[in-house]
Amino acid sequence: MSSPISVRILGPRIGAEVLKLDLADPLSAQTLQELEAALLRHEALVLHVPDMTPDQHLAIARHFGEAEVHTFYPNLGQGYEQITVIDSKLGDRADMWHHDESFLPSPPVVTMTHARILPPTGGDTCWISMTSAYDALSPQMKQYLDGLSAWHDMNSPMTAALQHGICTHERYVEVVAQNRRQLHPMVQVHPLTGRKALYVSPTYVTHIDGLPQAESRAILAYLHAHCMQVEFLFKHRWALGDMVIWDNRSVVHNAIMDYAPHQRRMHRASVFARQGVAAQKHHEQEAACATTE
Fold it and tell me: 41, 98, 180, 267: which one is catalytic?
């Protein structure tokens, strides 16, 4: 049986594109399984799908888990509440390095964004493989980080946004009142691949739990600079209708804000893990991925 998708590697450590995708409705189980296998291998996956419908978007999202209805961002409305609208004309932006919603106790495991309106130039998005960044640490640093946890706080970027006039005082008060902060291990093991990844970002992480302030700042500054090395990075220049799926467990991203006053509108679905998902799925997904390349 021929594979429903064909994958081309875009970077040595992160990034691939799907060259052949049958957008049959409904998408076949084999297609969805092979997409997941490719994502686990490459961490960020580009799909060229200008004709993708919201139903197909949600079908892919629901394969990975429970699609989120976002607390703050608008969505497509009745029946499509799980598709969030990120529109620069509404003041929405994500030009910061971050894992999506890492301030939650159980953040989304996968995010997928579909380009609906693009500026004439600019608006690229970058992703960094935090697995590759972890792998490149010295054995001494890996040992030092083992067992450490850091605080992820939604209030930190909101305070910066208020100071720079990016959000209103009313929106700031609304978000800060939620008091969304969470302690997460700084090194996490991917539940499906078994690979270790750094779980830190300059956007949401405020400090390392239990360390003196100066030491915490020094370690975080080193890790942030280490992760920014170009060999860990994948940059995508969007075309209308592109969708990028990324593994939020092992990747941070930054949507570059260099296109004002033009509009950029994306449709996004973020997915929470279902309870009781077995790590043994990875062996089947690896076998499926091997047939696509």
Answer: 98
Catalytic choice (92, 100, 242, 247): 100
Biggest distance spanned by C-alpha atoms of the chain: 59
Summarised one tens digit per residue, pLDDT across range 143-178 is 999 999 999 998 776 665 555 566 566 765 666 666
Residue 153 counted as domain residue: yes
- pTM of the prediction? 0.88
Q: Which of 152, 184, 253, 264 is catalytic?
A: 253
Overall number of domains in the chain:
1
In a domain, 290, yes or no: no
Q: Which residue type sits at 132? A: S
Q: How far is Cα 148 from Cα 39, in angstroms, rounded to an integer?
A: 28
CATH number for 231: 3.60.130.10
98 is catalytic: yes
Residue at 293 is within a domain: no
Query: One of 57, 184, 249, 268 is an active-site residue; which one?
Result: 268
> How deeply is 114 buried, as exposed, middle or buried, from its count of CB atoms within 10 A (0-12, 13-18, 19+)?
buried
Place of tokens 């209308």: 240
**Domain assignment of residue 287, yes or no:** no
- For the chain, list residues with pLDDT below 50: 277-293
What residue type is 83 in one-letter code?
I
Q: How far is Cα of residue 83 from the mean position of the Cα atoms in its chain? A: 15
Q: Reply yes or no on whether 253 is catalytic.
A: yes
Q: Are strands 5-9 and 16-21 parallel, antiparallel or unpaired?
A: antiparallel
Per residue in 51-83, pLDDT (tens digit) is: 999 999 999 999 999 999 988 789 999 999 999
The DSSP element (H or E) to which 233 belongs, if any, is: strand 233-236
Instruction: Show the domain range for 52.
Output: 6-275
CA distance readout (Å), 30 to 33, 44, 56, 65, 149: 5, 19, 15, 16, 38
The DSSP result for 118-140, as a single string, is --SS---EEEEEHHHHHHTS-HH
